[in-house]
Amino acid sequence: xxxxxxxxxAMTHAICIDKAVTKSVLMSHGLGTARFFVVxxxxxxxxxxxxxxxxxxxxxxEGSSKGLRKESVVKNLESLKNAVKWIHENFKExxxxxxxxxxxxxxxxxxxxxxxxxxxxxxxxxxxGLPEGVxxxxxxxVKNQGLDVYIKYHAPARLPEKMYRTVEExxxxxxxxxxxxxxxxxxxxxxxxxxxxxxxxxxxxxVPEYSDITKMAKAAGMSYDDLVLSIIRSARRRYGI
Length: 241
Ligand SMILES: Nc1ncnc2c1ncn2[C@@H]1O[C@H](COP(=O)(O)OP(=O)(O)O)[C@@H](O)[C@H]1O
Ligand SMILES: [Mg+2]
What we know:
Elements: H1 10-16, H2 19-28, E1 36-39, E2 55-59, E3 73-74, H3 77-91, E4 95-99, E5 104-113, E6 116-119, E7 123-126, H4 140-144, E8 152-154, H5 161-178, E9 183-191, E10 194-201, H6 212-219, H7 224-239
Antiparallel strand pairs: 1-4, 2-3, 2-4, 5-6, 5-7, 5-9, 7-8, 9-10
The protein binds adenosine-5'-diphosphate (ADP) and magnesium ion.
């Protein structure tokens, strides 16, 4: 239709809406992501898989922590089968099974400016203040049902300098490889000396205060308007308007 729009082109959204395809693209370029396999509805969980427990079981195509609950993290074959069955029954889509990375979680906001990719201050999501017994990851209830008040954010993330730079560089490369544009956000976990890109958002929400990318922009000294204008400026430059 020729209508200019912000953010990635359709092909990139098509890749990013499928967590397994995204991970395969990243892996084929040597970028870090957790080891995984997919179980489609009607298929059986392979009993001889080579992944190491604990594993996390997520819907292949959702976002906003949908389908993520305490029981998503499993430590044996029986609970793995139950978690996969639950995804098939509730979402009618494939279940992504991947190694659970027990480590620091950061989210990475990227802005395209003048054709260059700029990384906003990395935002660390600190789950340590959650009440006893609550899962230490962004499950649906932690993110969306009130428990987020216990989460502490640190921008910039408290990572060793070298790892901080490694994550920035990896996210920039992923941005280019996936064909992202204008802005994007990625969830990354760091364990020991490795980083794992777990989720790429090709069209992140821009809710003032609530959305992580608005928190990162603020840490970079940008107002909400600055953030939105930066996205629009990048798109206008592409279209020459
Ligand atoms: N492999 C993993 N290891 C550890 N935590 C994970 C893993 N995958 C997901 N999580 C946790 O679940 C949250 C949501 O998963 P994510 O893949 O980002 O899905 P969504 O698209 O719903 O945001 C992450 O922010 C993280 O806290
Ligand atoms: Mg995510």
